[in-house]
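Structure ticket #2291
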Amino acid sequence: MNQSVGQSSFRHGKPVYILNSASVVGTKEGEGPLGELFDMVGDNDRFGCDTWEDAESTLQKEAVYLALEKAGKKPGDIKCILAGDLLGQSMATSFGISVYEIPLLGLYGACSTSGESLLIGSMAVAGGFAESVVCVTSSHFASAEKEFRFPLEYGNQRPLSATWTVTGSGAFVLGAERENGSRAMITGATIGRVVDYGLKDSFNMGGCMAPAAADTIRQHFEDFGTGPSDYDKIITGDLGTVGQTVLIDLLREQGYDISKQHTDCGIEIFDAGSQDTHAGGSGCGCAAVTLSAYILKQLEEGVWKRVLFAPTGALLSKTSFNEGKSVPGISHALVIESLQNESSYLQR
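Resolution: structure written out below.
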């Protein structure tokens, strides 16, 4: 039986299975330490398109196609797609996946959208409202720079606190029943809230988002009665090296030391020494492709048995930035477990 847990969390009575997934990335991501793990790496970041925005739509279209193919599913087998991106009115999503003619629930959680889509998708499956759903998110370095900062032609300088928006899309097929090829299972989640410390520096997104990650992780521990040692890894989405330091310090002040368990998708996806990404990676695609290519692989191979996956998002827009507003953050957390834990979970 599904359960509401504590203030902001829930536990699935029966696991929701990640039947399969796919990751499509750009050239820079393919040159990074995870390059060999991605399903598709583009020859160039235009992906055969005339605009950066069309290129990002292509990322989503290809990721969904590959995920469905790997899961042995057709579009008609999917109840709905839960999807989003960073662009205005989620245009990368609207133009990218319309070809599949699958009912769409458009989401926006900034760079936390992969977590939001998996959280809501798992609720739909666990609640019996859908046998299977697809969750997909994307980002593109060039389209995001144009949307939130400066067009590439401007050639602006980036401070060392800045992160590099990942060009990539990750898609996941969730199902109610375990099937051949299933990769892992979602067993619970914590819904995050908006946290605003008043920071205004859009070139320090890790610092802006870290308080939200700390709030969600703390709330998760309180709701489930767990602590850092209950997870092999606690993985945030887009904090980078600067945000990681802030997160660890904030949680230490609240009595939780996650320094041994913590890593960040933005740290894992690029090589800090050779790729000149400064503080690391970010963007909707960052957590999504790292989850698909790297984190799920570790769970499949039994290297990790249980992880807390907590993507983070900065809830700013061009309008809010130009009006001098601060950058609020949000983070959603999911418990994702190895299938090796299935029998023990069902007995808990």
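Closing remark: DSSP finds eleven helices and 16 strands in the chain.
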